[in-house]
Design a protein that fits this description.
12 helices, seven-stranded mixed beta sheet, L-fuculose-1-phosphate Aldolase, alpha+beta, three-stranded antiparallel beta sheet
């Protein structure tokens, strides 16, 4: 499998190994979310859109591209947010424009929770004191990459906190990068009940869908309080339907104190993001959601050509 990429074996193994590790950690990556890259010998290896990081070591999920060509493309004028190659994610510019050998972008649930419930002024102060650059929500794509580069000019940080999106780390040593991921998670554990989040996530992973319904594990939560608010991009892309307690054939989901009911069988990806939302809602039920992606922006993202391709690939 490594021969397919035709790059130095030792570095390839390390990169693929760590990519797979974060892909198999539900607290860091859910479904087809997240992407990693490695620059080597005037080439860049980037995860292809719609593929799973958890499959890093078993499938050819990365695209090998001439770095000079893709760098010229994303450093030039690109007014229509076009992609260099159709197999690449819209987040490919992040990996090209950041200079380090390795770039890991992942959707830490803890980072999403923290960004949703904390006042930005207070949180930004904490992040900057830990050499982490906070970035307000911008739709994934070239604009987000350019904003990171622009804001980082006066800091030269390697850690980037994306509000209502996730986290990015760039490093020249992949083992150091992997260690930093958990140092960041440790920082978040001072802001939220991380042990509860871990327990919620591990419990919900085994929640089963039977006859298009799932047991409601938190019957006391008023899920409607979260309606109209997308907490992260893939929320709007893979599970855009809000929870209602009134049965409606035009809605994907409704619930009562015993069950969640679905008007169709969920795909594995939809089920994964449903469980992600349950974990977040259970953790922040007594908190106010102060930062989120507005409904119109979320639906616009979902209806973009790139996200439609990801949705099709996930079925």
């Amino acid at each position: 499998m490594y021969r397919y990429y035709k790059l130095p074996l030792n570095r390839m193994k390390s990169f693929i190994n760590y990519s797979g590790k974060i892909g198999n950690n539900f607290l860091l990556v859910q479904g087809p979310g997240g992407n990693t890259s490695m620059k080597e010998n005037n080439h860049i290896l980037i995860k292809k859109s719609g593929f799973l990081l958890s499959d890093s070591s078993t499938k050819n999920i990365f695209k090998k591209i001439n770095f000079e060509n893709i760098s010229k493309f994303y450093n030039g004028k690109n007014p229509n947010n076009k992609k260099f190659h159709p197999e690449l994610s819209i987040e490919a510019p992040l990996h090209v424009l950041l200079n380090s050998k390795y770039v890991f972008h992942y959707h830490s649930i803890a980072s999403i929770v923290v960004s949703s419930i904390y006042n930005k002024k207070e949180l930004n102060s904490l992040l900057l004191s830990n050499n982490i650059l906070p970035i307000n929500y911008i739709r994934p794509g070239i604009e987000l990459a350019q904003e990171i580069i622009l804001k980082n000019n006066k800091h030269n940080f390697s850690l980037f906190f994306l509000y209502n999106h996730g986290f990015i780390i760039e490093e020249n040593n992949v083992s150091i990068l992997y260690k930093k991921i958990f140092e960041i998670e440790s920082l978040f554990s001072k802001l939220i009940n991380y042990k509860k989040l871990r327990n919620l996530s591990s419990g919900l992973v085994n929640l089963n869908l039977t006859n298009n319904k799932i047991e409601n594990p938190f019957p006391k939560i008023d899920y409607k309080k979260f309606n109209g608010k997308y907490l992260f991009p893939d929320h709007s892309v893979f599970f855009p339907n809000f929870f209602t307690d009134v049965k409606n054939k035009n809605e994907l989901i409704y619930y009562d104190k015993d069950y969640f009911y679905f008007n169709k069988r969920l795909t594995e990806t939809e089920l994964t993001y449903f469980k992600t939302l349950l974990a977040i809602y259970a953790l922040v039920n007594d908190k106010e959601i102060v930062n989120f992606i507005k409904k119109d922006k979320g639906l616009k993202l979902r209806n973009s050509n790139d996200e439609k391709l990801r949705i099709e690939a996930s079925k």
